[in-house]
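Q: I'm building a small set of examples for a reading group on sequence design. Run inverse folding on the following structure and report the sequence directly after it, with nothing in between.
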């Protein structure tokens, strides 16, 4: 009788497809006590007697959010192995969804990258191949240092916000107001290189930590292209709330102090003057803004985000690590 596909190592961790559940003799011989099902198909519950069973109902599609389930699936696998039993992780084919969950577990347990975990897993089951969306989620999970609670990670929250923006774009509408992430309400008191101030009234509208770099304007690109960009693109900030929460697809941004038009936004994206397409496009016009070195930066090294008085500590990786 062919053995189950066992992940190399000391633990009794197995991976397979739906038909693996019908190999009762092999499951018993392997000492399987826990079964993790990662699929949405109707399941015959008789297949899971007498195992402890957990189901994660997801489809094998690139835009499915499997990342949010990693802490729970990791905990389920760990509980089964720590109790001395065997754990079978399966999906329909034992190729993408189940592989993704096993990789997430290996990453957390052994502090390895997604690629390293996939290479290790393929020693047991060569067909393993998470879809590209799941691989991106695994890479993000690694950059977040595989936290026990992904939903508290700023990196995860930004990723969810970006997904919401992309979904709204596909529907031709603005994101729901309650789902907009205003970055300065979550960030720490990071040091900044410069402030962006309204040229008319000198009100600080943003700091360098909230700028979103795009390919043509990044420091690794041709400096002449960076200078050609007519806008600063940045994260949503709390002073923009009255405008961004109106549900409009695009509009103007006014300085909250002097009400001068200082920029614009387009949830559907816009093309920068350097030809790069930006999504979402929230921008300040360079012709209406001055870059100013904060006077206190040399003394303290930090500045509070614009418009805030106190900020909660930031947990998770910095934007530079993403």
């Amino acid at each position: 009788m062919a053995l189950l596909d066992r992940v190399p190592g000391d633990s009794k961790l197995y991976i397979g497809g739906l038909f693996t559940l019908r190999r009762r003799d092999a499951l018993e011989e392997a000492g399987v006590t826990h079964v993790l099902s990662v699929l949405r198909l109707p399941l015959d519950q008789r297949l899971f007697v007498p195992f402890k069973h957990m189901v994660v109902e997801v489809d094998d599609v690139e835009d499915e959010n499997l990342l949010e389930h990693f802490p729970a699936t990791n905990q389920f696998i760990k509980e089964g192995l720590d109790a001395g039993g065997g754990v079978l992780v399966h999906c329909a084919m034992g190729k993408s969804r189940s592989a993704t969950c096993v990789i997430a577990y290996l990453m957390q347990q052994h502090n390895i990258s997604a690629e390293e975990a996939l290479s290790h897993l393929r020693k047991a089951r060569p067909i393993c191949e998470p879809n590209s969306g799941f691989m991106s989620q695994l890479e993000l999970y690694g950059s977040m240092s595989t936290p026990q609670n992904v939903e508290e990670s700023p990196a995860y929250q930004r990723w969810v916000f970006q997904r919401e923006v992309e979904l709204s774009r596909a529907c031709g509408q603005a994101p729901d107001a309650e789902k907009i992430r205003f970055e300065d309400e979550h960030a720490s008191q990071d040091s900044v290189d410069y402030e962006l101030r309204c040229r008319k009234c000198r009100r600080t509208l943003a700091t360098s930590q909230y700028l979103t770099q795009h390919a043509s304007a990044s420091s690794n690109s041709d400096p002449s292209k960076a200078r050609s960009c007519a806008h600063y693109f940045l994260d949503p900030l709390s002073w923009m709330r009255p405008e961004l929460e109106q549900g409009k697809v695009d509009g103007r941004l006014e300085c909250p102090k002097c009400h001068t038009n200082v920029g614009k936004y387009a949830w559907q994206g816009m093309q920068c003057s350097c030809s790069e397409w930006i999504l979402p496009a929230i921008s300040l016009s360079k012709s209406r803004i001055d870059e100013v070195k904060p006077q206190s930066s040399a003394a303290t090294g930090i500045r509070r985000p614009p418009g805030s008085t106190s900020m909660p500590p930031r947990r998770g990786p910095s934007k530079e690590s993403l």
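The first strand starts at residue 5 and ends at 6.
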